Amino acid sequence: MHNGTTITQFIIEEQRSIAGATGDFTSLLNDVVTACKVLSNMVNHGALVGVLGSAGTENVQGETQKKLDVLSNEVFIKSNEWAGHLAAMASEEMDEIYPIPAQYPRGKYLLTFDPLDGSSNIDVNVSVGTIFSILRCPGGNEEPTERDFLQAGTQQVAAGYALYGPSTMMVLTTGNGVNGFTLDQNIGEFILTHPDMQIPADTREFAINASNMRFWEPPVRRYVQECLDGKEGPRGEDFNMRWIASMVAEVHRILTRGGVFMYPMDAKIQAKGQGGKLRLLYEANPMSFIVEQAGGGSITGRERILEVQPESLHQRVPVILGSRNEVERILGYHKDA
Ligand code: AHM
Ligand code: MG
């Protein structure tokens, strides 16, 4: 039996110290947490409840949607639209922003999310997750527009992810460090199990989809080649490699034991006219906020991701994040090139 701090208690206590806090934010986070519990349950039951497989549709990025992509998006909307804390939502799975319908009150926050990241892993029963970010709505809550969402990552009020792995976890930052909670299935509560998570500054482990190697830019090739050269190479040490193809699982591993995750710019992505593989508002910004709050670094290769000024809702960026000293090294290689 667990007698620890629940996520709700943790958030309430954290918010108490903030002058002028109305409780809106606490209550919004609670709704996000509830949505993640529902998704955890769906992902857990998988084929038993008929949620695996393709939905036969494509999202705005032209990717085939899994049934669970569509269902999880609906769960997120339903859990978060009614309470009066949000002006609008935006999701990787929806073309346009979702202003809160007129039947509900509108609030001062914006929510962006990728309801089920790494969804190519669902059918093979490998970890997936939910990523979310909370912003303030700068234009007021009357008629929220796409422009309201185009805020640099430094403006985020909170960011987090839920990881549906051997256990379900929620990792959260409100700009005051990073804390991890584990879902106790028996009582249906997330319990604080990983207080003040810190990414080790050094690592000997990297994660990249090496099938794209021939398309990479020279700085990334150089970095990876030096890792592969191991003890005999310029680094003088052997490196280990991991690739789960599930960003949430990858970031979680890095928060736990260090490492570098890269989905860099490459010639194939460029040929498609895209700025990267991962989306700035739903993936790169929330993860960068978490990683930086845990003492790590997060860059596009050339600049800090959190300082990128978004130009469109579904904008993509290259992502290189993780242990600080390695990320700085990779930044240096881009500057040298
Ligand atoms: P998704 O949002 O469509 O699931 O795509 C994002 C995922 C990341 O979780 C993961 O890092 C990457 O795509 C894997 O890409 P690849 O299939 O090229 O290895
Ligand atoms: Mg995604």
UniProtKB/TrEMBL annotation:
The keyword Nucleus does not apply. Its cofactor is Mg(2+). It catalyses: beta-D-fructose 1,6-bisphosphate + H2O = beta-D-fructose 6-phosphate + phosphate. It is an enzyme of class 3 (hydrolase). Residues 6-195 form the Fructose-1-6-bisphosphatase class I N-terminal domain. Mg(2+) 1 binds at E92, D114, L116. The keyword Cytoplasm applies. GO terms for biological process: fructose 1,6-bisphosphate metabolic process; fructose 6-phosphate metabolic process; fructose metabolic process; gluconeogenesis; sucrose biosynthetic process. Pathway: Carbohydrate biosynthesis; Calvin cycle. Binds 2 magnesium ions per subunit. GO terms for cellular component: cytosol. GO terms for molecular function: fructose 1,6-bisphosphate 1-phosphatase activity; magnesium ion binding. It comes from the Bacteria. It is found in: Cytoplasm. Its EC number is 3.1.3.11. Residues 199-334 form the Fructose-1-6-bisphosphatase class 1 C-terminal domain. Substrate binds at D117, G118, S119, S120, N209, K277. Its main location: cytoplasm. Belongs to the FBPase class 1 family. This is Fructose-1,6-bisphosphatase class 1. It comes from Imhoffiella purpurea. The gene is fbp.
